[in-house]
Amino acid sequence: MIAEEKSLADLVAMLTGCERIAIDTEADSLHCYFEKVCLIQISGGAEHVLIDPLAEIDLQPLYDLICSRRLVFHGADYDLRLLRRTGKFEPVDLFDTMIAARLVGKTAFGLAALVKEYFGIELSKASQKANWAIRPLPQEMREYAMNDTRYLLEIADILEADLRRMGRLDWFLESRDRMIEAAREVKERDESSVWRITGSSALSPRAQAVLRILWFWRDAEARSWDRPAFHVIGNDDMLRVAEQVANGGAFSTPRMNGRRRKSFEVVVALAMQIPEKEWPKTEKIRRKRPSREQLDNFEALKKIRDRVATELQLDSSIIAPRAALDATAADPSSSALMNWQRHLLELPPLGVSSVA
Predict the structure, then answer these.
(1) CB crowding 158-185: b at 16 or more within 10 Å, else e
(2) Regarding the domain delimited by 200-278, which CATH topology (the fold level of the hierarchy) does it fall under?
(3) Is the pLDDT of residue 190 over 80?
């Protein structure tokens, strides 16, 4: 476990001779409100190391070096978002084994499934939901983390060879570039609708008003406690209480400590006083009815997609998800489909784009 500047400098020196480096991260989103990177796993050459981002060390020298090499991830989008929070992290070359596995037709494309298929090794899932912020890390968690990169370079070799043999490397490159672009987008939450959890649409307007105030109370509690929201109160309990309160009946308070219970009951009492004019209004989204031409375009594209999917033995959603077909049927110049997908669907290309 690298947790000091000298050890990190030694690692950077060692990695200088590596053309390819496998990398993964572990975070604490299941245990904290303010998610952070808790561990970085690196495999380069014959070395497999763990780096502690929670230690007071400057990670930028590491990032500068490894981002100049080919980086191999499995499901890179989440890792890229996390790493960019801790410094300047912009790889010049990236290989994502999850994208590659899907494009060569793997139906089981998780890392554990690929390791079992190629090496006959069953990876433990015991630490999947562990708290990666704890220190020191138990040996079991260290082994689990190391296995996330231990086999990646070999898997990448196999999958890249398959992509080239099948003539799908260009598919991979375009798909990878789109993923990198999407990972750069900063997602802002919509305060007017963030409280609309699964099941809220079935509630009455009054119950929704109660749910809304409960959601923001929970969010404030979770933020001040630095714990995930479900540690304060679960969605099912919030829906139940909201419905009970709206129906004018007694409600049962979920298990909470004394201070939080009192705060919760005060908030529920306030929620019961919300006037009708302040209840949430559900605005029905009036979607423009598709024209006969759009419907015909959709059916024609879907027919081609399903035929191609069968011929290539690929999941049809990889070739064109339903939403992308809808968008393209309505506007043939839509960028919902990538050029390799458009080619398979017998559509003209939109132009070449690439992520530097």
Answers:
(1) bbbebbeeeebeebbbbbbbebbeebee
(2) DNA polymerase; domain 1 (1.10.150)
(3) yes
